[in-house]
Design brief:
Elements lengths: L1 E6 L2 E7 L9 E3 L3 E11 L2 E7 L11 E4 L2 E7 L6 H6 L7 E4 L4 E6 L5 E6 L2 E4 L1 E2 L4 E6 L7 E8 L2 E5 L14 E2 L21 E4 L1 H5 L10 H5 L7 H8 L3 E4 L3 E3 L22 E7 L12 H15 L3 E6 L11 H5 L28 H18 L3 E4 L7 H14 L4 E4 L26 E3 L1 H11 L6 H8 L3 E2 L2 E2 L6 E3 L9 H6 L4 H17 L3 E5 L19 H4 L10 H13 L8 H7 E3 L6 E5 L7 E6 L5 E4 L5 E4 L4 E5 L2 E4 L3 E6 L1
Parallel strand pairs: 1-7, 17-18, 17-28, 18-21, 21-22, 22-23, 23-24, 24-27, 27-28
Antiparallel strand pairs: 1-2, 2-5, 3-4, 3-6, 4-5, 6-7, 8-9, 9-13, 10-11, 10-14, 12-13, 14-15, 14-16, 19-20, 25-26, 29-30, 30-31, 31-36, 32-35, 33-34, 33-36
Length: 661
């Protein structure tokens, strides 16, 4: 006979036919009789649903007995119930609180029967507090001590990390107690920018080419601040925000092996989260030192802030690397991930599991993680991987909390409408953008339209004008252009150079990417540039390089030819002329006007107190001649800022040109 706690008053029993009789009685702890409310015969077994008149508490041990059979009541589906979720919500702090005199530990698990924190091989028992929280206070100075938890569910003990642990040793074997006051003290605060321009960067890819012992680390990137690569190069472009690809602890690598010449080396982008409060050891010089990874990341962000740029963090709250090893799931089996109607894990993320973000304590985990990185590391904004798999309420609550600390914080993500086990009206995707007024979305409609244009598929001037307004996406309209992240290339899929190389002559690719950069920077909304896009970055045709080598993923900062100056000039123009920074629909529709009679796409931009600008877009190598009013000046010739008076202009290649009256 087996018994499972399915809800606070429901026990499911599976018993052999030979051991069951009609009207048989069942007792909890040999004293309290349960009522049989459902009976089903399945093969040689009888499946019974029993009901208790009293609430059964899942952190206590129970036995179920009948006639001469007795068994322990095992953990069942109770962790998936709405009542469980609401009953055990806890709004206080979790993890640990350190002082020199004592350390207080708290861990959330309404279903463990016993739990101990292990320090120096000594077991310290925790006591049940309330709302599923276990706690203990150890009156010692535990700074720099390693710890983990040993817990019992049913009759079995297991070991786990702290879901709220904030540092670790190499490959996530233990958590460590940190005196955060002894870590590097940051000197610079959040960065404010009214016209953000995002530059996506992998910490490793930025410096892996150096072939030094610290290549590919936080520290190596920090040291590039005054160089002609890395931070120094990016600062020179005029970028406002660097978006760092995943920087919290991730798996799929050996954190001790960073030399790509080592046969055991493994490369990974980092979309394999394991610990949501711990910086990556793979990106640290010394993964075994629990302070080093914290200090290196704090120094890197401080240096970026000193250079006048913000830092956006790429966060992955839609799935984890290994659902069976994830600490939250080990502590509360069945609570952490989405399941289908049969009880199997869903796989909308294509990574084997989907976090159940609408469960209150998973929502809390996410928001606590965001606030922690914002407070301790002064992160300026957050990019959400597969945001469409997260529920709207979690995103809205996160935005509320994040902007309380920093009103200029950015929040944006991948708003794809993916088939996840969640009602479509509560998914944080583009189709629900009307419910997420402060959240921006990667605009794949913009991406696909203009990549097609660059790839020799001519578009009408009305279509071009449509997407350059910035508030349209594929299938609808945003509330305004601030919700659109305009991009042609990111870490996913082929680089723009590799994409165009499939169908274009080499000597034409430079012109096409120049046009693509101009459209990206000057379209209404937020421009997004993938690191090296302007350098004609290649990944040698690979469209998913997440676990490929440094040879494929590294950035060649010195590649020639390049469009570095073109990008820099475009950013100067965007910052100089308010014509390219309208966000509200009424302003865009009022101040942008498409010339209906022009043979070539020509858009007039108006701004109060500024001369009118005329943007002309040539898509191909056919020759077009356009005449202009007297006194008109060409101020951008497709690559460079110029100052040339023109009465007519011959357009002979793809490009975006700007004229001023």
């Amino acid at each position: 006979m087996k018994a499972y706690l399915e809800d606070f008053t429901i026990v499911k029993v599976i018993i052999d036919n030979k051991n069951y009789q009609t009207n048989q009685k069942f007792y909890i702890n040999k004293t309290k009789e349960l009522k049989v409310i459902e009976e089903n015969c399945i093969g040689n077994e009888v499946h019974l649903i029993l009901q208790s008149d009293e609430k059964l508490v899942p952190h206590l041990d129970y036995t179920l007995s009948t006639i001469d059979i007795e068994t322990n009541v095992l953990l069942g589906k109770i962790t998936r119930s709405n009542l469980f979720d609401k009953t055990y919500y806890f709004d206080g702090w979790l993890g640990y609180r350190y002082t020199k005199e004592k350390t207080i530990f708290r861990v959330w698990s309404p279903v463990v029967k016993e739990t101990y924190v292990i320090i120096d091989d000594v077991k310290y028992p925790l006591q049940y507090m309330e709302s599923g929280v276990w706690t203990t206070t150890i009156n010692q100075d535990l700074e720099s001590k390693a710890y983990y938890y040993r817990c019992r569910i049913n009759s079995e003990f297991f070991e786990t990390l702290d879901p709220y642990g904030n540092s670790s040793n190499a490959n996530n074997k233990c958590n460590y107690i940190i005196d955060i006051d002894k870590t590097y003290q940051m000197k610079y605060g959040y960065v404010e920018s009214k016209n953000p321009i995002i530059y996506e960067l992998s910490v490793r890819d930025a410096t892996s080419f150096l072939n030094k012992t610290d290549s590919g680390t936080f520290d190596a990137l920090t040291k590039s601040a005054l160089k002609d690569y890395g931070l120094g190069y990016i600062k020179n472009l005029g970028i406002t925000h660097i978006q760092l690809m995943p920087i919290f602890a991730f798996d799929g690598v050996d954190e001790n092996i960073k030399d790509s010449n080592n046969s055991l080396f493994k490369y990974n982008w980092g979309y394999n989260p394991t610990q949501y409060f711990v910086p990556s050891g793979f990106l640290s010089k010394n993964a075994e030192d629990p302070y080093e990874r914290i200090n290196e990341l704090k120094k890197l962000i401080d240096k970026i802030h000193q250079l006048g740029m913000g830092v956006n963090m790429d966060v992955v709250y839609n799935h984890v690397y290994d659902n069976l090893c994830f600490p939250f799931e080990k502590l509360v089996p069945g609570y952490t991930f989405r399941t289908d109607k049969q009880g199997f894990l869903t796989n909308a993320s294509w990574c084997g599991n989907d976090l159940k973000t609408d469960h209150l304590m998973i929502r809390k985990l996410i928001i606590d993680s965001l606030q922690y990185f914002q407070k301790i590391y002064r992160i300026d904004g957050f990019r959400f991987d597969l945001m469409g798999l997260i529920d709207i309420d979690t995103i809205k609550e996160a935005y509320k909390k994040i902007t309380m600390a920093n009103p200029f914080a950015m929040m944006y993500g991948e708003g794809w409408n993916m088939p996840v086990e969640m009602p479509s009206n509560i998914r944080a995707n583009m189709n629900n953008c009307q419910k997420l007024e402060h959240i921006a979305f990667f605009n794949d409609g913009f991406r696909e339209f203009f990549k097609s244009l660059l790839n020799n598929n001519l578009k009408s001037r009305q279509e071009i004008f449509h997407y350059m307004k910035g508030y349209y996406y594929n299938g609808g309209e945003f509330l305004d252009a601030s919700q659109s992240i305009n991009y042609l290339e990111c870490h996913d899929n082929r680089t723009l150079y590799d994409f165009l190389k499939l169908n274009n002559e080499e000597n034409h690719i430079l012109d096409k990417i120049s046009l693509g950069l101009a459209i990206t920077i000057l379209t209404m909304g937020t421009p997004f540039i993938h690191a090296g896009e302007e350098l004609l970055r290649t990944k040698h045709g690979f469209d998913n390089s997440y676990n490929l080598s440094d040879d494929i993923n590294h950035i060649d900062w010195y590649k020639i030819p390049n469009l570095t100056n073109t990008l820099k000039n475009l950013i100067v123009i965007k910052n100089k002329y308010p014509h390219f920074s309208y966000l509200k629909k009424e302003d865009i529709n009022k101040y942008l006007r498409l010339e209906q009679t022009s043979e070539i796409t020509s858009i007039r931009y108006l701004a109060k107190g500024f001369p009118d600008l005329q943007v002309v877009i040539s898509q191909d190598y056919n020759e077009y001649t356009k005449y202009f009013a007297p006194g008109t000046k060409l101020i951008f010739d497709g690559n460079n800022i110029v100052d040339v008076t023109v009465e007519k202009y011959d357009f002979i290649k793809p490009g975006l040109y700007i004229f001023k009256k």
